[in-house]
Amino acid sequence: MPFTVEEFLNVFEKYNLSVWPMQLFLNLLAIGAFWFLVFDRRNTSYRINSVLVFLWLWMGLVYHLLFFSVINKAAYIFGFLFIVQNFLFVFYGLIGSKIIKYQFRFDVHGVLGLLFMIYALLVYPILANYFGHEYPKMPTFGLPCPTVIFTFGLLLFAVDRIPRIVILIPFLWSLIGFFAAVNLTIKEDFGLLIAGILGTEMLLFFRRKIINKTNS
Predict the structure, then answer these.
(1) What are the sequence ranges of the domains in the chain?
(2) Please, are residues 85 and 148 in contact by the beta-carbon 8 Å criterion?
(3) Confidence (pTM)
(4) Is 158 helix (H, G, I), strand (E, B) or coil?
(5) Distance CA 73, CA 143 (A)
(6) Which of 89, 115, 106 is nearest to 38 (CA)?
(7) What is the reported pLDDT for 215?
(8) Phi and psi torsions of 60, nearest 5°
C-alpha cells in the first residue's frame, strides 16, 4: 500500500467534513431507489437507474479524483473506471433500446438483494463503529465499498439478464476493495467480497439457468 491506515482514514475524514450534508442526500437517494422498487410502479426502472448513474458519477469524480487521489495515484484509474460504469448505467439504464428493468419480488434473488441493501445502508455503518471507525473517519454511503454492495443489491431485482459488461467493474471493485480491506483492517468491507462473488454468480449463472428453464 502506498499509504498508511491513518492516511486512509484521514481521507474519509476530509471527505465527510467537506461534503456534509451530502451524505444525507446520498442516503435519501438510496432509500428513494428502494421506495421506487417496492411501492412505485411508474417509471420505476428509469428512477432506479438514475440513482445508480448519480452514485457512480459521484464516486468517480468526487471521491476518487478529488480526495483519494491525494494519497494514491491509482485513484485516477479507479475514478476513470467508475465514470465508465456511470456511462454504462446511462446507456443500459436510461437511453439504450432495452434498458435494465426492475421488479420487487421475494425469490432467492430478491431476498439476497434485500440483504445486500440492508447491509450497505444499516449494518455497514454499525459495523464500522463497532470496529472503531467512528464518524467522520469512516466510509459513509456514497463511498465505493458500501455503495457497490448496494448496487449489487439493486441489480439482483433486475427482471432480465443484465449485460456482463455492466457487472464487470462492480465485480472488479469487490476484489480490489476486499484485498485493500484486508491490508487496512477495514473489516466492515469484508461483506464487499461476499456481495461481489454471490451477486455476480447469481446475476450471470443462476439467472441464466432460470431463463433457460423458462424458455424450455
Answers:
(1) 5-207
(2) no
(3) 0.93
(4) strand
(5) 17
(6) 106
(7) 47
(8) -70, -50
